[in-house]
Please model this.
Amino acid sequence: MKSLRKMVSMVLAFALVLSAFAAYALELPDGVYIGTGAGMQSNIVVDVTVKDGKITSVDVVSHNETPGISDAAIETIPAAIVEAQSTDVDAVATATFTSNGIKEAVDNALSGEAATVQELTIDPDLIVVGGGMAGIVASVRGAELGLKVLFLEGSARIGGCIHYAGGTISGSNFKIQEENGIEDSPEAFYADVVRLGGGESELNPELSKAHCEKSGAAIDWLDEDIGVDFGSRTLVAGAYAAFDTMRVTLAGDNSGLGGALNYLNPLTDRLNKAIEEGSVQLMLNSTVTELMVKDGKCTGVKVGEVEYSAPTTLLATGGYCHNEELLKMAGFDNIVSQAPKTSNGSGFYLAQAVGGVFDNMDKLATYYGGGLMTDGFEMTYGANTSYPGRIYVDLNGNRVGDETTNDVHLWMNAPEDKLYLLISGNMIDKDTVLLKYGISTRTPLANNGWDMMDELAAEENCVYKADTIEELAEKMGAENLVATVEKYNADVAAGEDTQFGRAADTMVALEEGPFYAVETVPYAYTGSTGGVRVDGNGQLLTEDGVSIEGLYLAGEILGPTCISGNVIFGGINHAMAATWGLNAAENAAKAVE
Model:
């Protein structure tokens, strides 16, 4: 079925990437049609049955969406499509991504292109592996430079983490800085990075210097060439670490979830144009399984057994925040993920197979313990770690610090990285959320999560409930819990936390049942920190210091801490994507001159 330069691929009409759903007047033969769409956590596969020109059934046959949250969409959206004979139906409010994924899958099934042999139609100068922001930038810039680009994405849609990210980006010597009267230079930027990051020994100096030199021009390209809306064109202090010079700006003045769509939308418009003109060929659902390297030079990639060749290849597969093995390289016994499944670290393994080296994998920007391991590695639910009055205890029932700090080190220093959040009946306010959904924390569970709390407690699945502290201690196996609560209650009565100095006005005695203990561990979101080693030009660098010619990296796979050391500064991920995506395209253009 597969031969050189030809593959079986699930082809998506690219206009559907931004979800325009259709009403159907079907002229298809009777039969069952298969389609794939992108959900919140997975590709969703549907069977659509057509008879006498009508959709008679829609069945979701494969998905890996989060149980409990996706159920309503999986149950109701197919029936609504059959009733309306259209995918123009309302999404389930609490499961929007799953709803849209089902609708996209039906559109693809009935497009007539759901499963076809897609023949390579170009002779590529550049192969781009990974459809996040870095891959899109490289493909668009490559087309601008007159290259033929083969763009490969392993999932059903492009965008990756950009669908969930905020709008910050950082650099030096870009036009918005100048408009705001800010004087800056790459040298000053690099000195600031070294100061914040703990010295040159904590980063990759060649990569970091090059990033400081090139990132401002990348912002200007997005601004002036692509037409990204930078809103009021102001500068902000940024998050995580403060520069001594203002270097962070915002697409659409939006630092929160969805802000990055201000990059994705205009870049997608340009990409669509390049596809229409024949400069870029996009293949979705096309997972690269091997980088082809011979005599120190990358000659292309394999997708399964199909080989694609080009003078230059870009590895832009993103980070690893949904890869338990790679996350645990930072020393965690337990950690869960709130990241999309596309952040699977696949590019790290591809690079390693051809001599690539991982750097700074012992560093990880985790969030404090809101993660409940109700289903293995994936964070299914999260606890409200700001719930008034709560205390934390370890597996033995001991407090570990001032709970109001919510310092992730409380978890990292605890046995198995686990802490139990404890509350008592006298603290409970059913109008206050205690349990929330892991991926979309902006959408509360029914009854603020209290119904789910009791369901999990009945199963003793990450939640324990008892009428007395003694009974709770027995269920948890926490031998010191009773003594810990007695000591804490005595401190509350005395108005002083004699163990950890917690402010007295935040302390509430655990006096009345029911008592709950909610298991929590640290969790990763969408920003991994370690990376694959590269030289100052972004080419893969092997352990013996040899660069692999023609194999470039861009985006999160570079590792933010390899550029910034022991800190993550505002806007670095989008800057890595834009800066190094451009770098790869421009080097590809030089290679074919």
Notes: DSSP finds 15 helices and 27 strands in the chain. Residues 205-226 form the longest helix (22 residues).
